[in-house]
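User: I'm putting together notes for a lab meeting next week and I want to include a structural view of one of the chains we've been expressing. I don't have a solved structure, so I'd like a prediction I can at least talk through. The sequence is below, exactly as it appears in our construct file.
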Amino acid sequence: MALDGAFLRHLKNELSQRLLDSKVDKIYQPSRDELVLQLRSREGTARLFLSARAGSARINLTEASPENPKTPPMFCMLLRKRLSGARLREIVQPELERVLLLVFEGLNELGDTVKMTLAVEIMGQYSNLVLVDGEGLVIDAVHRVDASMSSQRLILPGIRYALPPGQNKLCVLDCDADEVIRALQELPGDRSLAKGLLSVLQGTSPILCRELEHLTGRGRDISCRELDEELISRLRFFLKRLIAMVREVGGKPYIIVDETKKPMDFTFEDILQYGTGRAFCECSTFSELLDRYYARRDAMETMRRRSEDLNRLLNNTATRLIKKIYLQQEELKACAQREHFRICGDLIQANLYQIPRGAAAFTAENFYDEKLSKMEITLDPSVSPAANAQRYYKSYQKAKTAEGVLKVQIQKAETELDYVSSVLDSLSRAESVRELNEIRQELTEQGYLKTKGKRQKTETALPPLQFTSPRGFTVLVGRNNRQNDQLTLKTANKNDWWFHVKDLPGSHTVILTEGREPDEETVLFAASLAAAHSKARDAGKVPVDYTRIRYVSKPQGAKPGRVIYVNQKTLYVAPYSSKEK
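Assistant: Thanks for the context. Below is the predicted structure for the 581-residue chain, given as structure tokens.
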């Protein structure tokens, strides 16, 4: 569901009750499209999250503490200058438009009281956050809009701010059910009642319009042309109920989830159109609803955006290595003919006395074959038979040398490909910017990335993921290759147990025994964690090797995370599914 005007009205009412007269304490800009205002009042502090991201534009109170860039963006610096210390005096929603105007009152450089407005426009791909001064002029925006992007509405510093153009629809705040029904009857064409309602009502989302059709038609699809007296009577009843709920800001925040508990929609009223195919989770506030609904999506999008350059680098490197290995293997196949060159040289050498100078070929008995089969040998007529023999010997030696070199090069390329795959796996499981920074630092140390500008201060290394088995054993899981090395080679004791998914990239997993012998349930628990933190985390049953730390070692000069182990056993387990740490 898009965050429609009716839902935004409920949200605006909630924010007004909680935030009016709060003072702007701190301002953060975690990403290009997001802002966090920390507001302080007598009741305490609150974080107001504002997003202009196309897929998840919204405004709500949040308990989360998003990670912020070390250097604040320019728009954040501007807001800190203009809004720090200002008080939120009013929150305005023009009719049921998807726009909230946050009106602040503060002091300028001269100490005069001034008003400033932060316009939060929630309009899909056109979403924006615009700072407007007391005269109605745009100071700046998260997304500037110039003439090359829009010919109807510009958002640039110094231009007078105008609300998004209206859609010429009926607003339920100042119309009644009969007006809506008349507008539906005047619609041209034969369209469904849900689509008709969507085209005439302002601030209503598709889910609300579908629900009105579902209730009016008692579960069957109906069109606007089918509206007879009975259907009109039912539609009038449900329209009045919706209008009253929007005007009085009634209803409760619901998240609609599918059979896998994945959020798929949200609303402020009971929804019957899904029958028993969907479940409803009631939230305590509308802000909590939005936080829960968008949390996973936002986290994935943030990590995708911030890791995009690393993904591109690693995938390009992997593609290059795969191509290199293929070409070298083809060359290696050609080297398999080296014995043929040696035999040709020997046969020429053994038959020099009967090969005439200038011959293009000759046939001789192959004394390396038990059946002494005849073998035709091609010659270069421009040189002597002895020189031809030397040429074959030279081709043999070249192929033999090339075979040795190619085998080494292929092994190196395969080892590097395994390493790149392991970093890609770590990257796919990274859940914070600090984890990304550790991967970035590892790639810099290995020469895949170049250091830019001044050397940054090294961040404190993250600890490994920590779990507790049902029997009370501590199980540690490395987040990336550098942490895998630290965990296996330094943190763990030689009597601890070590786990790793078999023949695939994954995290090192260690049971800290502390002098005890882990039971079978704990071993299975650790194995399932190793499977879950590997490339095979989406598989059904995964083979996991395990052995004691004393049997794990790191080859000299090996890449981070690369170890060898012996005396292992193998378990087949399902990856651990719980996200609790």
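A couple of points you could mention at the meeting. The chain has four domains: 5-141, 177-303, 314-425, 465-573. The CA atoms of residues 289 and 554 lie 48 Å apart.

User: Perfect, that's what I needed.
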